[in-house]
Amino acid sequence: MQIKPILAAMRHHKAGTVLIALQIALTLAIVCNALFIIQQRIERMARPSGVDETNLFVIRSDWADKSDPQRIDAQMRADLIALRQLGSVQDAAPINSFPLLGSGWDNFIKLQPDQVKMTTDSAIFFSDEHALATLGTRLIAGRNFTASEAGAQQPRDAMHAAQVIISKDLAHRLYPDGSALGKTIYVTMGRTPSTVIGITDTLQAHMTGSWAGPYAYNAVLVPAQLLNDYTYYLVRARPGQLDAAMRDAPKALFAQSRMRIIDHKDGVMTFAQVRQRAYGPDRGMAILMAIISAVLLAITAAGIVGLTSFWVGQRRKQIGVRRALGATRRDILNYFLTENLLIGIGGVMVGAVLAIGINVWMVSQFEMARLSLAYVAAGVVALLVLGQGAVLAPALRASHVSPVEATRSV
Amino acid sequence: MFAYYFQLGLRSLRRNPALTALMVMAIGFGVAASMITWSVFRAVSGDPIPGKSGQLYTVLVDNRGPQYNDKGEPPEALTYTDATALVAARKAAHQTLLFEVAPSVLPEGNQSLPFIAHGYATNTDFFGMFEVPFEFGGAWRASDDEGRAAVVVISHALNQQLFNGADSVGREITLDRHSYRIVGVTAHWDPKPRFYDLFSGNAFGDPVQVYLPFARAVDVEMDTAGRNNCGSNVDFGSGRDAWLHGECVWVPMWVELADQPAANAYRDFLTHYAAEQQRAGRFHWAPNVRLRDVNNWLDYKQVVPPESRISLMVALGFFVICLVNTIGLLLAKFMRRAAEIGVRRALGAPRGEIYRQFLIEAATVGLAGGVLGLLLTALGMFGVGLLFEPQIARLAHLDASLVAMTLLVAVVATVLAAFYPTWRAAKVQPAWQLKSN
User: What ipTM does this complex have?
Assistant: First the structure.
């Protein structure tokens, strides 16, 4: 195949050539970045929470009468006994917030009482000795809270945190050598020390924002139920009995006391719903980018078909002449395929640079990761294949132009 | 001539149906993607209180010092101590302070269940400063703030729910076991983003249902339902009182200042206040205060979600590609008619006429693309819920301005895209075309 005549012919329709190349370049730039965003979001959504999601649900109970702390404490204990007695329920625990909720309580964690800057930030979960069994999160070192350690406190009281259980990631952040168990750390923002009595397997924090990225798996469990205007109850259903437990639990709570509010819309949520809520924006972004990429590729392919068809139509006579002079159908087909490949290669070269440029800019504007070159390479291959696919039909039509055309209307 | 060219354009749409369909679809999809993401973006980035946003300032005082503050910036709200002192000083034309509350409402009679109402504890200036419209009654008086009166303003929606929309001024409502007298019912009022409470991350939260006097809420120990930020290394002691008078920030404060001199004067006053605290031994650092107006505050708090920005940009990029595509296709479409152009030119049509004819034809294509784009945008409005968080998705809607904009953008963009192909068409040499036929 001779490239020279193709290049010579291109000079005669510069505009069309540049337009197709430009379109390929821009498409590559956007599709690469869109696919990269999709991959990042999917990766984020696939992060483990560390809890038994299939059997877990949460109930938010607001106290309708905002009664005094002693009564709230007694009510919570009664509620929990009632929940744990249900046949469909494996275990239940009070908690102020939970993995993926989005809102909650986070404190700076320090290793020394006088430290000016925090060592790291962490979610603080106020719960009791049932927390781990309810979450379905394993202890990998140390021990659980005992029933006698589990107390109660109001939000503005000094934290009841003489003993704490921390998540694996937090332990590693504080003591990278793996010696966190038994150490003294400062989780109360004050000068009161806490002893690490246990370390859990992976446990996600409630924070989902991008600012919390480095702290997403830092959690401190404090053995106290929080006497606030509301509480969450984590309930773990027996395997396969989630629906039954979700029906039974609110009834059992209302049987305990009617002076509570369980929102009809989101008062009772399965963990699947919690997850869906937490990652809604990520899912939306991934869907939008997928739609845009798909439509974009389709439009670019259609554009190539349209312009090449036009060129074929324009050059019927020339094709006829070539055929009459002995060129085979295959030669004609190859001509158009090669021409398109050359344009495509030009386009993807510019596009690859553009793709990286856009990514560099996005990294500076939004907390985003660097585009992996594998994406650019995959995009380049995809667009070249797409371009060749798109040009096939018009090129085949061109190859069927009869040599007789050369004799007509000249 | 315009009507005739328009007719020609319509006819030409039918001439190469595949090519035309391709262009119309490219423009339709491009404009729809841009408009859907734009409708979300404009909703989250708009000025929530146009006309007044330059006169409302949030007040920030650094109570932590350079060692503990965030890169030199004061915390994003005030302590109870600072907020109440600054409001009591009355150095601005109007000043308000607020914190989020979520009291339980016990409806009268036993038929309905109690529920949580979302609202703010604030003072009377809030209503005037933020231009809250009233359906019945009005704001409570300044004397109610001072007298810590048990009064409340409720929203149109809550009034609907509790009193079926009747004038409920003067009636009682039970919040957290305490009885309050209703003094006003607001008309629908829900500025988005909710600039006055960005501190608690409520920019796009559910509409507010109740407002009650700040001092009263503190008296009955209503706890903040919003954010409470104690910073680092703050040992405020134990119990509610210690917290209330400690260094945790949880009270956003706003002042209304008519012009720049007034703002400068207020900033001086703030600096003076901070210096006084330094002299008193509470602050161990030089005064560090901020006065941020509404738009500055929205920027600082980065209220527009990055998702919205990124998707708008990607959609615009998509639209640009669609236009590049359109340029190519229009070029093909126009150049196919070189012979026709040659005949017209040979019969005496000046280049201007060729321009007019083909630009109008392009506008016709653009209009068709715009109509398709409109349909897709309308369809997309149902799908917005899939793409964005519910509280943001519900802000996007198809209104008259968006309809007009969709059509206008489609037509203008297509005409712009048509300039090059038209220029090429106008350059056609009549002699050449006539000869080769």
Answer: 0.84
